[in-house]
Design brief:
The protein is α/β, with parallel strands linked by helices and about 475 residues long. The chain folds into two domains: about 110 residues, Urease, subunit C, domain 1, CATH 2.30.40; about 325 residues, Alpha-Beta Barrel (TIM Barrel), CATH 3.20.20.140. Helix content is about 30%, strand content about 20%. Strands 1, 2, 3, 4, 5, 16, 17, 18 and 19 form a nine-stranded mixed sheet that branches. The chain has a seven-stranded parallel sheet with strand order 8-10-11-12-13-14-15. A three-stranded parallel sheet has the order 6-7-9. The longest helix is centred in the middle third of the chain and has 18 residues. The chain binds N-(aminocarbonyl)-beta-alanine (URP) and zinc ion (2 copies). One zinc ion (ZN) binds next to loops. Keywords: Hydrolase, Metal-binding, Plasmid.
């Protein structure tokens, strides 16, 4: 290393694990990037010894919701500051939340508004997905192609929720824009009419407690929509990514399509590994606490959990995201919107999990359910590739951003909301003990969490990342 090329940081004795390799070396960092991987690197301004820890690429959370404008008096508890703080403490160094179009408004307005929400707040880097809720001719012909070129190369569409859902024809049109512009469409696959019919029936029978959310959204509703989305992708001849897959019925559809050679990607989330419908009270509890675990699709049962674990290791899933949806429990703008006597369909959907995503999956590594390389692939490498951020993010290599997490693979931690860094008043994972914890986080070479202590880096140090073309 030439003398005039001084290093800002050296991480010594790192046990580096990427999606494909494992090797021991020192990591040299300059200007926020990794510039050397080698032995006996020269002294640097700052040094840290990683003996006994794993050095992993920082997590890329490819699906989370932060400070997303909400309808009907709902409000998210996390903004870009508290959400990215929690992410960093959980070993994530890049987040991709959603700039959501409102029906009747432009997509560009949503992007501009979302930048204002992020500016000066984020402590780690971020890109944006778009949510296309109103695919007018202007959106399809002008706004969307232009935004894709400007670094917003992935967008989500919904097959359910009145304020967001697209018709089948609109879905086809949006997919066609993705095909023409090399973008990626993420699909929320649940059948809206089946859900509203089942909901009306349940509510009409007085079955309104949170637990009935699971009965209004059975797995057939997800299976049908998943198959329909796959059919649209086939007709348009474009890859899609099915988000937050909850269990075996949808997995079967995705495997079937993948087996036919289609590029159908899929994502799952911690709630489908650790929660079941019992957590919403399905055992017969009509109390309101079950609202804490209300998300869509709903958590199902242990058999489905096992199917989701299997699909994480056999190639069905490419991405493991948090789908962090931060609503407070004890809050009239959160889970208690409209009070606790309202039917289940008034409960804001989603669970928090941006900080616990990686430890909950890593516990599967500790239990021998998946390999370390699979862990890195699902949580960092593949989301970086699929969402156009690789090789800057998603790996430890010369030229990559120095987004590095030092993990203690044997540390046992009992999850407690009191120790988390989000602004939500609960975690659905309270009391679960995991093995393995992210101890130290570097974002572009800056030490932002040390031995579990959040070091209060400047809010706003996180940078917006223009996403390139998805690598499927
Ligand atoms: O219930 C969920 N998943 N809420 C978050 C929004 C979404 O659909 O991803
Ligand atoms: Zn969704
Ligand atoms: Zn989501």
């Amino acid at each position: 290393m030439p003398a005039d090329n001084n290093l800002d940081l050296v991480i010594r004795n790192a046990d580096v694990v990427t999606a494909s390799d494992r090797f021991r070396c020192d990591i040299g960092v300059r200007g926020g990037r990794i510039v050397a991987l080698g032995h006996d690197l020269p002294p640097a301004a700052s040094e840290i010894d990683a003996t006994g820890l794993l050095a992993l690429p920082g997590g890329v959370d490819g699906h989370c919701h932060l400070d997303q404008p909400m309808p009907d008096g709902m409000r998210m508890a996390d903004d870009f500051f508290t959400g990215t703080r929690a992410a960093a403490c959980g070993g994530t160094t890049t987040v991709i939340p959603f700039a959501a179009q409102e029906k009747g408004a432009s997509l560009k307005a949503a992007v501009d508004d979302y930048h204002r929400r992020a500016d000066g707040r984020a402590v780690i880097d971020y890109a944006f997905h778009l949510i296309v809720a109103d695919p007018t001719p202007a959106v399809l012909q002008d706004e969307l192609p232009s935004l894709i070129r400007q670094g917003y190369s992935s967008f989500k569409v919904y097959m359910t929720y009145d304020d967001l859902k697209l018709s089948d024809r609109e879905m086809l049109s949006v997919l066609d824009v993705a095909r023409q512009n090399n973008a990626l469409v993420m699909v929320h696959a649940e059948n809206a009419d089946c859900i509203s019919w089942l909901t009306d029936k349940l509510v009409g029978q007085g079955r309104i407690a949170p637990r009935f959310h699971a009965l209004a959204r059975p797995d057939a509703v997800e299976r049908e929509a998943t198959h329909r989305a796959i059919t649209f992708a086939e007709l348009v001849d474009v890859p899609i990514l099915i988000v937050h897959v909850s269990g075996k019925e949808a997995i079967e559809q995705i495997r079937w399509a993948q087996g036919r050679g289609m590029k159908i990607l899929a994502e799952t989330c911690p709630q489908y590994l650790y929660l079941t419908a019992e957590d919403m009270g399905m055992g017969g509890d009509d109390g309101y606490e079950g609202a804490k675990c209300v998300c869509s699709p709903p958590p199902r049962d242990p058999e489905n959990q096992a199917a989701v674990w299997r699909a994480l290791t056999n190639g069905v899933f490419s991405v493991f995201s948090s789908d962090h949806a931060p609503f407070n429990y004890d809050d009239p703008e959160g889970k208690k919107l409209g009070g606790t006597a309202q039917p289940f369909d008034h409960i804001p959907n989603g669970v928090p999990g941006i900080e616990t995503r990686l430890p909950l999956l890593f516990d599967g590594v500790a239990r021998g359910k998946l390999s370390l390389h699979q862990f890195v692939e699902l949580t960092s490498y593949r989301p970086a590739k699929i969402y156009g951020l690789y090789p800057r993010k998603g790996t430890i290599a010369v030229g990559a951003d120095a987004d590095i997490v030092l993990w203690d693979p044997t540390r046992k931690v009992r999850i407690a909301n009191a120790n988390l860094h989000h602004a939500v008043d609960y975690t659905p994972y309270e009391g679960i003990e995991v093995t393995g914890w992210p101890m130290t986080t570097f974002s572009r070479g800056e030490l932002i969490v040390r031995n579990g202590e959040y070091l209060e880096p400047a809010a706003g140090r996180g940078k917006f990342l223009e996403a390139g073309q998805p690598e499927i």
